[in-house]
Structures are given as C-alpha cells and as structure tokens.
Amino acid sequence: MKYVFFDIECACVYKNVAKICAFGYVVTDEKFNVIVREDILLNPKGKFHLTDRKGNEGLVLPYEYEDFKQYPVFSAEYPRIKALLEDKDAVVLGHATMNDVNYLNLETRRYKLQPLKFAFYDTQFFYMNVTGNYARQYGLEAMVEELGVDFTPHRAVDDAYATMCACKAICAREKTDVHGLVSRYGIRAGRAGGGNSKPLTSAGQKKYFALREKEKEIRAKAHEQFYRFVNKYNHKKKSGRLSGKIFCFAKEIEEDVETSLNLLSAIFESGGTYTSHPAECNVYITREEDGVRYQNAVASGAAVIPFSTIAEALK
Question: Which domains does the chain have, with CATH numbers?
C-alpha cells in the first residue's frame, strides 16, 4: 500500500470552468518515505485570471506564466493522472480535496474524457476531526504552520508535499497511521465518479451537524417567543423615564429569552419601545462591541450600553 498526495493549481476558475495548469503529486510508502515527487505542468489553453477564496484578485503562482504554452494540455497527461489516482494499491489524499476533485471533473468534461473514479481522503478533514473543530475550515498554510511544517504556497508539488508532511504530523500526534485515523474517528472516504463527487463524512461531523441543527431549532423557538412578546406589548405605550427611547438588543441577548423578556418588561413599563432594526434604534444593548448589528447601531448614532449596565439600572 502507498499514499498518493496531490494538489492542483488552475489558471482560472469559474462556475463551470477550471483550467488546470499544474498537477503536483507526492507518492510515499506507508511510513511517509517519499518515492516520487513531481509537478506535472499543463498548458491551460487560456489566460491566467487568479483570485483567492474570497474572489479577490492578486493571487500569484510561483511559475513563469509564459512557460505554460510549451507544456502539453490536460488530455495528453490524463492517462498518467488517471493511473495515479485510480491505482488500486494507493490511498489518495489532498487538502480541501473536494475542490481539486471538482477541477478534475470539469477538465475531463471539457476535454470529453472518461470521468475519473477514485476514493480520497483530506488532511483538512483529518485535522477538523482531530481538533474537534468542525466550524473552521483550515487553509493549508494555517494548518501546516500550527503543525510546524514549512513550504512554498501555490506551487502544486510543494502543496502536495506540505499536505504529506501535515498528514505525517497528524498521524505522529495521534500515534497512528492513516488507517488508524480513519478508524478512530469513523471517517468515510470521499468519492469521485461519473463526473460527480461525494464529500467525506465522519461520526464526529455528523454529531456536530445534529447538535448545530438542535441549537438552530432552539434559537428559532427563542426568536419566536421573543417577538411574540414584543408584538404584544410594544404598541402599549406608557409614559416614564424611557419615553422616546427606542431599544434594540444584540442577537445573543434576544435569544436568551428569560433575560431578554425581563429586560423588555422593565423597558416597556418605563415607557421605552423596541425595534428589531439597529439602524432605527437610539439605544443599543450588547454584551460585546462587535458584529454587523453593533456597527449599524453605531452608524445610526445610537447610544451603546453594555448589558450589565442596563440590567443593573433597571433592576
């Protein structure tokens, strides 16, 4: 059994187009001893238009772009790439591998080639399971920095090598190998086939999604209860020291129903009113001076009062 770590760089990526210019790979034995390390450079048959994950331009690959015209096109190197990824004796791994699998699907479709069919693992997903943090998708640079691995970003073969080093470091930290990680965390491989791709899953991720869904339901019920109370009493204006004051709470205060309803009762009894739109309030209550709601309230000229202060004042 051997490991095949791979990474792909594209000259451009659009919704239905991904013109691959580099396929980097590293083949190792099960102890991570490197057998082959290579950058397969390809003529993308198109201009370079590079953006980062957020769509911002300015990303630069560490290659001479003019040189790519002399390299073969994807279809010419397809048999070699296919042999690497579909090798029955190989475990295929990448970082954020679904992206690269989708690029391969788009290129095989572009050149009218048979879609690749293989199972794959993902060091990003390994790290999420090991750390128990499924809310954050670790970029390769951030992850290898935490693991103490050096590399040159965006050179495909170096990214593949860094992915291998990261995998080796994770296995060393967990005192096991890839198969041990898969077994320990109940990880199921992702799959490519028929021009489509299926993501990896794990027991921990399923539990995280179930918990997140439950929390979402709890927040929805809290939101409904809060605004039912607001709609019932907001129009019953009373005179008092808070007359003319229009309050708005940070989301987390709204969702803490026991606290928020007591606070609302005190506000309504003192003549204040409530709005769900921070740009319309003149008093904004928050636990942290952060977030879009806070910024909108500040931009509208609202007075920002810490929750602890208003709670104490309205006792």
Answer: 2-201 (3.30.420.10), 232-313 (3.40.50.10190)
